Amino acid sequence: MKKFLGMALLIFLITGSAYATDNHQPHQRKIAQKLTQVIHDADDGDGPSAPVTPEWNPQKVSQEGVAYLEKLSKGTPFGTTDFNLEGLRAGMGTRNEPHLDGVKLIRLKIGDIPCEWVLAPGADPDLRLLYLHGGGWVSGSGGNYLPLAVDISVAAKCAVLLPDYRLAPEHPFPAGLEDCIAAHEWLVANGPSGPGPAKATFIAGDSAGGNLTLATLLALRDRKRTLPAGGIAISAATDFTLASESLRTVHDPIISAQTMPEFRDRYLDKMDPSDPLASPVFGNYRGIPPLLIQVGEHEMLRDDSVRVAKKAVSDGIPVKLEVWPGMVHVFQIRGLPESREAIEHIAAFMSGHAYRTNAHASCVHRNIVRPQRLFRRSTSKSRRAPRCR
Questions:
Q1: Terminus-to-terminus CA distance in the chain, angstroms?
Q2: Count helices and strands in the chain by DSSP H and E runs
Q3: Which is more confident, 384 or 269?
Q4: Does any domain span residue 105?
Q5: What CATH number does the domain containing 216 carry?
Q6: Count of domains forming the chain
Q7: 288-305, pLDDT tens digit by residue?
Q8: CA-CA distance, 306 to 294, in Å (whole number)?
Q9: pTM to 2 decimals?
Q10: Which residues does the annotation mark as catalytic?
């Protein structure tokens, strides 16, 4: 029997009204009820456990969020009429210089992988986050994500490493994944100032990078390599069989669901789309560190996040799932009040799990990981890591 399994599981759905007016509440409650049922179905252990009940936290979207969604609704999502790979690469390959006095940007290579460290003033260079950029596995760059990396470095007081992993179709699966694995292995023993062990590491990423975050965790576990203290998946694509209902039912104002077969064919070539390292929703999550999963309500990939959270919970992994009302794909980069709050949640998650040193996280974690209070930063000077047996 999975003793005290329920105590080891933690899922929170941040749900509420997607609009500022009350006449949309029934629609939003239907969404919340549906997601709640998904999480309850995940509790399928072989013994009694505490119910895993999402927190119902009705809230209104900020005025800025409502205005942003209205603005997006007047446009056309990428990929609606054609798939412009050149245009996508030009846009997501643009370098966005951060505007913060004193931030350190350090370029380097890990083997043949171009990378860049981001270290905000006051950040701990030995608390290290590997951030995997989005871009559909075919585009994107670390330089495009510098402002987000700075925001996370400030909030979590950590060093952020941005790798430019290899892109498809020139380098199909699993080339980019192998680069992410190599980057984390290097990160464990090297920091912005040179060689030196990390106090703790984390892996995060959005969209395709969210997919790679989960796949990297699975691969590190399978290869018996050092695991991070936690994983953070933002708006992650998790299923290349394209079975999630939200692909058919959600109007995503950022990107059309028609792009998913295009991304899949370029990334996987002729590989099996149900391979767990390509579609992490099919993975076995036993022995994986705790997860924070953030996704917006108005995303075609929303159910990819819900389903992978359900799978991880069924495998005994502590998960915090946040479905943000009124938000869109990778809303953390949009400069909204919700963007800043979500980044604070990431920082709180890292603070709550940083005591899990890499030496302990490299074990298959059989002990109970007691849930932290929702997004409350730890104030303890010393936290004892759980003992692997």
A1: 18
A2: 12, 10
A3: 269
A4: no
A5: 3.40.50.1820
A6: 1
A7: 999 999 999 999 999 999
A8: 10
A9: 0.83
A10: 207, 299, 329
